Amino acid sequence: MSTLYRILAIHAHPDDVEFQCAGTLALLTEAGHHVTIATMTPGDCGSAVQDAETIAAIRREEARASAALIQAHYTCLEFRDLAIFNDDESRRRVTEAIRRARPDIILTAPPVDYIADHEMTSLLVRDACFAAPCPNYLTRQWEPAPPLAGIPHLYFVDPLEGSDREGNRVAVDFHVDVSRVFATKREMLACHASQRDWLLKQHGIDEYLDIQRRWGSIRGAEIGVEQAEAFRQYRGHPYPHDNLLLEILGQDGRGRTGA
Ligand SMILES: [Zn+2]
Predict the structure, then answer these.
(1) How far apart are CA 237 and CA 111, in angstroms?
(2) How far apart are CA 151 and CA 131, in angstroms?
(3) Contact 253, 246 (CB under 8 A)
(4) Which long-range contacts (CB under 8 A, 24 or more apart) does 192-198 make?
(5) Cα 166 to averaged position of ligand 1 atoms, centre (Å)
(6) Model confidence pLDDT, tens digit, residues 101-159
(7) 237 C-alpha vs ligand 1 centroid, how far in Å?
């Protein structure tokens, strides 16, 4: 039997993972790997009518239901929307979350995106990957988990619409064909009913799910498949350089299997 790995997908807000890498996660749990989905915040600013704690409680449950569809575990780091900063306490909290999840592979937000919450998440996760194996780095959290054996393989998902702050398309390393599990990916996003209803009310169309399909088909067309997700691997000096993610997916990064 092949080795089973642990994967942590950590992004800023509930539904970011569903847009950018839920198909890849569905393929991974289907193959028996252990997946944790983490959000930095519970999406407490994601409503114009409910107060912060009410919408946060609703969105935690939506995120949990989405993760449960692929037998993934869900956790929230309990930062707050528009209040994710790269500071000492935040890095310790993110490091603790990584130590608890014990991942071999981490998928996270891209370094450049349309909003600072995403960029700060990316930066915090990158440095927490480096900190997680350091025994002298204390997280100062309740019942701290032991340090990791090594730095996990780190990957960045697409920014919104694949663009940098000037609207230019960012380069990617490889694609994952997620056509086969797209129905599940769509179902996962549909769990975020509070956000879907909000957009439905504002635009009168089911724009929420359409955005996901449209973006996935743009990435898919780049490699000649129906639906794809794109990634960049972080290859800073001490970080693992081998592409473990593609290896365990059995894909070659251009839409072909059996790599
Ligand atoms: Zn977000």
Answers:
(1) 17
(2) 8
(3) yes
(4) 192/14, 192/15, 192/18, 192/59, 192/62, 192/63, 192/66, 193/62, 194/46, 194/47, 194/55, 194/58, 194/59, 194/62, 195/14, 195/15, 195/43, 195/46, 195/59, 195/62, 198/46, 198/47, 198/48
(5) 18
(6) 999 999 999 999 999 999 999 999 999 999 999 999 999 988 999 999 999 999 999 99
(7) 28
Average pLDDT score, the chain:
95
Please name the residues in contact with 141: beta carbons below 8 A apart, sequence gap of 6 or more.
Answer: 92, 93, 96
- Cβ burial, residue 80 (10 Å; 0-12/13-18/19+): middle
At residue 205, does pLDDT exceed 80?
no
**Interior/surface letters 2-14, b for 16+ CB within 10 angstroms, e for the rest:** eeebbbbbbbbbb
Rounded distance from Cα 88 to ligand 1 centre (Å): 22
Q: pTM of whole model > 0.90?
A: yes
Tell me how far the alpha carbon of residue 221 lies from the centroid of ligand 1, in angstroms. Answer: 25
